[in-house]
Amino acid sequence: MSDAVAACWAKLESHGRKTLIELFGTDDQAGERVRMLSNRIEWGDGDMRGGMLCDWSKTHLDRELVADFEALADAAGFSAKRAALFAGEKINTTEGRAAEHTAQRGVGKESSVEEAAALHRRMQMLVEAVHEGALGQVNHLIHIGIGGSALGPALAVDALSRDLALVDVHVVSNIDGVALEAAFKACDPATTIVAVASKTFTTIETMTNAASALKWLAENGVSDPVGRVVALTANPEAAVAWGVDETRVLPFPETVGGRYSLWSSIGFPVAIAVGWDEFAQMLMGAAAVDRHFRDTDGAENLPLRAAFADQYYTRLRGCQTRAVFAYDERLGLFPDYLQQLEMESNGKRVTADGVAVSGPTAPITWGGVGTDAQHAVFQLLHQGTHLIPVDFIASIAPGDDLDPAHHRILLTNCFAQGAALMVGDPGDSPARNFPGDRPSATILCDDLDAATLGALIAFHEHRTFANAAMMGINPFDQFGVELGKQMAKRIEAGGNTFDASTDALLAAAGLSLV
Asked: Domain spanning 102-279: which CATH class is it, in words?
């Protein structure tokens, strides 16, 4: 940590603490506070115009804290790191490469944007060919991947294909055969294609599941199972060697990391499910947030402002978790998606320079869907001993055609929970006392369409990057994923012994060590 960064943290730590009620103060002060901390990001035009309101007014940020966090961002080199991100520089220093997911959305280094556009055209041609019957009748797609190669597609397909799916998509990630068998039971092998998503085309869980899918096709009368496979990979040579015809290999660049890869050919199942135009709208919404993040300085930069609050609660208030609740059934997988994005990116203990971090890094991200969560975990949020910042996400437009009472009750519950967390209630007994002063933020979308989903995901990508920049860590490697997998390979290879407990478990499960 540089002396300048240390000085900024020292100043931030010297701030007194006002309650949220005190921060809202008089009506005039409250109005000014909402105007300062509640702002919109917009995209599109005409009938395609959309946007989302990002309201951080129920957090403990105030004008002085925001100014000091702006100084911290400056001292930590945020602007230079952001410029390096969009310029395609090798900001993933431990792996010696750039992080160019924004180029997939058309915002980044010119040559990378051009390459992404060409790869998208190739993907679009295959998507449209499938829809037009070039691979025969296709009613089902089994998409096999893991991590970002599965979480992103699963989220987008679930969110966007509920009203109308051109192809029924099943995303399988778990090596547990139960997951793959469930997809088999839901699909007719005669009208099923398989997408295999692996950056290296060597990921053991993915390739094992892919082999089982080919076996299922063959055992059910498909004469050329591998002819039903589409490969999504940064290693096209390996896919061709595995047997996939190069016309059905959709590459993406090495500089696109797994948890940032939805925008590349990893988004193939999304385009298959809902059509290319919807996938393009998702890219457009994300690009609007890219431009906002790239071109806006200080606290007016909304992902950066969100990171200010994240740093405040994690570093200055000792909050170990952050909860995310989507008051929209279509975003049921969004907390799961954010878990990987935030915890794999920023769950680090050393800086990009390899020295120990000076404080806590990523909190534990968790959450659920409202109103279900209100009848479960909200007890702890309101009356537990943990201080847990909460994010609420909702859409003004409903996703259903039922009685408007459904959506009205949904939204009023969402807004009421944030208000209740803030103001509390003294109650008439200790058991009925709600202390209040518990922070929340709300992202209120105009609608939940493809562009909005893209914007929501990009917002959180940039929020994650902004947090990393202020902490001085590299959010684009994930070496912590590897050690357990390496040890599992040693078990598979045989001839290894481990600690006494692990050896006993292997023996109890009938797994030989020789």
From this structure: alpha beta
